[in-house]
Amino acid sequence: MKKKLNCILLIDDSPEANRFNQIIIKGMNITNSIQFAQTGVEAMEYLKKENQIIPEIIFLDISMPKMNGWEFLDQYKFLEEKQKAKTVILMLTTSVNPDDEEKAKLIQEISGYQNHPLSKEKMTEILEQYFPDYVENIICKK
Amino acid sequence: MKKLTGKIILVDNEKYEKELLEKSLQQKDWDVEIEYFTHSLDALEYLKKTKDAIFLIISEFDLVKMNGLEMKKAIDEHLEASKRAVPFIFLSNTETKQDLKDAYLYRVGGSFKKPSNVDKQAEIFDIIIRYWIVNNHPNKLFSKENSDFIE
Questions:
Q1: In chain B, where does DSSP find H-type helix?
Q2: A79-93: per-residue pLDDT in tens?
Q3: Taking the model in full, what pTM does it have?
Q4: Which of B14, B16, B19 is best to mutate for the A interface (most A CBs within 10 A)?
Q5: Which of B45, B53, B46 is closest to B141 using CA atoms?
């Protein structure tokens, strides 16, 4: 690993998904911090805090209480540029509705669409695509 | 539901762990009060002062400010908290072999990997609870009430 990401933010209301994703990401040792938000509201609060570590990757679920993934994106657009920085937003969802994937393609803020579960292989592909400087050792281990 | 006498203390930085513990206990019909702490220093302060009946302490190894092993050492160094000999286990995916060796030097009752789903966790905690009900140890102040659940 050349260098680590600063932060990955997981937005998902499922405790099972959060634990599973944390095990995958932590096991790869690719980020200094993993943050969790169980609703879009919590995620917005996190991103709006002063001096917050801006996540390089946001994994976003669709179906959540209070504020779902789509509603989160509606509000995300209005964040200040410094709060978004160079964040890559990826949908990570259990949704099997093909309309959701089509809808995601039309939203500029969304960089990719993945189905649960996350895996080391999927995570490596994401890093290769968006953060090639961060994957040196992972690629060597393949 | 089988109502346990004594609380379960959970120390883990991730709030979703409380939900996972609740779900896994409910799945096996255990009715038990969970006292949850995000931070180990808060848990330590509570454990030093409390007179509450505690059945079990569950902690992650990897905690900010004071890790799980440091918290266990601090509990052991505090005479009153140590004398209560409340069973203490780790539930973690981050422990190293050295962590494990160190843990058993400090009278840890067990160390378990966080399972990937609630069903597996429910099985594991059912075994753990039954084990601490039948096991003889100084904390068995509530043995009479809880032993009714073991045939």
A1: 16-27, 40-49, 68-77, 79-83, 97-105, 118-134, 143-147
A2: 988 888 789 999 998
A3: 0.84
A4: B16
A5: B53
